[in-house]
Write a structure and sequence with these properties.
445 residues, alpha/beta, Aspartate Aminotransferase, domain 1, Aspartate Aminotransferase, domain 2, seven-stranded mixed β-sheet, four-stranded mixed β-sheet, binds pyridoxal-5'-phosphate
């Protein structure tokens, strides 16, 4: 560990310039950098050796806690045994083992998994699968997609096109056309509603309106995050997802759940599909699939989708002209297998469900702070939204993120909302530590 930390510290003071950091205020950050040089369990250490609690599980991906030896050892062993095999027309056992293990966690009838390297690639892959599926069924005219305001579906061109967050799309006007956005589900009348808000299921009828306006037979798929994560945790109104499902069924539209954040126990079940008892047609995954240790994503599909696309191609032909050099990378697959084994051995999804009540109680204890505008949450995922400062969105949130860090806690903020998502291995005292740091920071805001 020290071997790695030392050179980093040596370079830290004068060599930050060359790394163009993503989703970061580069000039601001480089003037006062916050560097992490070590991580273990629920904790991080910065360049000064100060300990911080990780209140967002990295970027919602380190569900089993940092520094898991089981994953490191699996990665090491895989690298030595077979470091790389292409998945274009070749195979290796770890990929099949991971797909089979994932299929066991997924709802029925999901028994086919396409591997990618990130959530963004999963979303773009799902867009292409939707197009290929309809074309294989003789409905190639279905070229329109429906998404939602305030949606985040990654940053590739497909996902950006589905995006409903203004800053993520205003610079990039030339995205794919033919995307219709439904209204988002945040309603001030539901402020501080815990879990699924009672009001708002009828917002799902925006999908029907899109059908009425554009023609249902032209719509390929409807993409939603079951809980909209990156926009600040918007829990779906009770009955909303079921209503989307019904409308999709009525019109032959595919329903895609983007579970890049909600997958792998975050909501107290393997997937949001099970937590909300609504089975979509595709599920996009990434993040906690490998506990954040190695980049990897996946798209899981209903059997009918796989069978239709493969069945439509002539015998011996490639059925789906899509894939990445690193699709099903052996090392990522090994990390994924070890990760899923940890989730199973430690019962982490059940553990998340058991801790959720305490977690939400503690988060809701912050609601009387003068600066807090709304709190939303489900499972081990919560959003704490503060009032914008002087009417300028994001300014207070940005400042609070820095102050929270100085108070010993890392939490990802989006605009004026803190997204709290402790690792699923967290104990009650870890939740207390996160909430106490938030309370101190809110008090000083
Ligand atoms: C719902 C959702 N989809 C897609 C992505 C993109 O994932 P990645 O950053 O791995 O490309 C994210 C990332 O936060 C996400 O939350």
């Amino acid at each position: 560990m020290n071997v790695l930390a030392k050179p980093l510290e040596k370079f830290a003071t004068n060599s930050l310039e060359q790394h163009w950091m993503p989703f970061t205020a580069n000039r601001d950050f480089k003037a006062a950098p916050r560097l992490i040089t070590r991580s273990e369990g629920v904790y991080l250490w910065n360049q000064n050796g100060e300990k911080l609690i990780d209140g967002s599980s990295g970027l919602f991906n380190v569900a089993a806690g940092h520094g898991r030896r089981e994953i490191a050892e699996a990665v090491h062993a895989q690298l030595l045994q077979n470091d790389y095999t292409t998945s274009f027309g070749l195979g290796h056992p770890t990929a099949y083992a991971l797909a089979a293990k994932l299929a066991k966690l997924l709802p029925e009838p999901f028994n086919h998994v396409f591997f990618t390297n990130s959530g963004s690639e999963s979303v773009d892959t799902a867009l292409k699968i939707a197009m290929a599926f309809h074309r294989a069924r003789g409905e190639g005219q279905r070229i329109r997609f429906v998404s939602r305001e305030r949606a985040y579906h990654g940053v590739n061109i497909g996902g950006t096109s589905l995006s409903g967050m203004v800053r993520n799309r205003e610079t990039f006007a030339a995205v794919i056309p033919n995307v219709v956005l439904m209204r988002h589900t945040w309603d001030p009348a539901n402020a501080f509603a815990r879990g699924e808000p009672e009001k708002g299921a009828e917002l799902a009828d925006d999908l029907q309106r899109a059908c009425d306006t554009y023609g249902a037979a032209n719509i390929a798929a409807c993409f939603v995050e079951p809980v909209a994560g990156s926009t600040g945790v918007l829990v779906p109104p009770r009955g909303y997802l079921k209503r989307l499902r019904e409308i999709c069924d009525r019109h032959g539209i595919l329903l895609v759940f983007d579970e890049v954040i909600t997958g792998f126990g975050r909501l107290g079940a393997a997937f949001a599909a099970q937590a909300f008892d609504v089975v979509p047609d595709m599920i996009t995954l990434a993040k906690a699939l490998t506990n954040g240790a190695i980049p990897m994503g996946a798209v899981a599909v209903r059997d009918e989708i796989y069978e239709t696309i493969t069945g439509a191609a002539p015998a011996g032909a490639v059925e789906f002209f899509h894939g990445y050099t690193y699709s099903a990378h052996p090392v990522a697959c090994a990390a994924g297998l070890a990760t899923l084994q940890i989730y199973e051995d430690e019962g982490l999804f059940e553990r998340a469900r058991a801790l959720s009540g305490y977690f939400l109680d503690r988060i809701w204890s912050l609601k009387d702070s003068a600066v807090v505008r709304d709190i939303r949450g489900y499972g081990l995922l919560a959003g704490i939204e503060v009032h914008p400062q002087d009417g300028k969105p994001g300014v207070r949130g940005g400042e609070m993120q820095k102050r929270l860090f100085a108070n010993g806690c890392h939490v990802k903020w989006t605009g004026d909302t803190a997204i709290v998502a402790p690792p699923l291995v967290a104990e009650r005292h870890h939740v207390d530590e996160i909430v106490d740091a938030l309370a101190r920071t809110l008090k000083a805001a």
